[in-house]
Amino acid sequence: MDPNGMKPLPLPSQTRDASFATLGGDNMMHNKHTTHRNDCQLLLLNSVQSSFDRTTVENQTNIPQHNQRGPRRKQPALPPSKLSPMAARAHMNILKKIGKQPLVEKQAEGSVFVPEISNVPSDYKPGKGAERLMQYMLRQRNRPEDNNIQFWRNLVAEFFAPGATKRWCISLYKNVEQIDTIFKVEWQCNMCNQKPCYGFEMSEELLPRLHKRKYDTGLVDEHLQIDTPNEYKGACGQIFLHYPKAAEESQYEQTRTVRNGQLRIVFSPDLKIRSWEFCAEDHDEYVHRNFIVPQVSQLGAAMENYRLSTQESSSATPEERQKHTDLLISSANQMVEALGVPFISQIGVDKRYFRSLQ
Ligand SMILES: [Zn+2]
């Protein structure tokens, strides 16, 4: 039990599996749960990245850049000198394999590339993961009008591997501890590295119902705004996709919310999502102009009537002046209510969907 009394969640299958590596950050070493696995072990070796960075950039899929905002942190790369002895040995072996001399303290700038060190046969081509993600988003947007559960079951079966998890970390939110009914979960976020973190974990079995619920509770459309990804293939054939800048945009009838953060997806060799992680930093809320235009017009008219009724030349009776004063106050209150957008939760989703996540 954690200090908040929540039952710790079991380690997700993704972290129990090998080939897990974090892109950048202090935990870019292999996860401790993977150290006993030799078959699929991946090591993030910064000093060899320089020989691959160019290849990575050239091979990346060109995804349109919609969002120039993103994480405000710069994640440091781990120099080879700070690798564990085992990692350092593996590091040297790889350097020998590719005929490179070790580079000392080469600091990463941008993407980190994990060299392919296995002989696992694959028809992988760079960009396959990003392409698959686009297919998933497109299919999701083409949902039927009746939002039936079977559509979501089919979608999840097609794009998610059995036992897959979807995580949403909000540990980087300001004043996260003051968010109502949010609690800590016993996993480590692979982007902000917090453990335990504040957030949610959804298993693949729950996804169809949650997707349906999301649209049943007022969501009109959802978009993913993404920057250029870092993509690479792991030794066991998994495809790792990391977007250092990503934003999830939810459109509701009266508002639009944009959650800013990082996105990290791991695909199985057959291109099914095994893990989907979004680490959100904050969100913006936008109120549709049409939604507040009536309140603005009403407030403007009430102000003008009040002004005229209080002029010295006005022939308004005290009762009429009181009536205009009351109308002005009432209009101002309606404006406050409209801008308050009370149905959006503190983390930028509909409150009813937020309760489902909990
Ligand atoms: Zn996080």
TrEMBL record:
InterPro entries according to UniProt:
LIM-bd/SEUSS (IPR029005)
Among Pfam families, the record links this protein to: LIM_bind
Q: Where is the composition biased (Polar residues)?
A: 59-68
Chain segments carrying region Disordered: 1-32, 59-83
Its recorded name reads Uncharacterized protein
What is the organism of origin for this protein?
A: Erythranthe guttata (Yellow monkey flower)
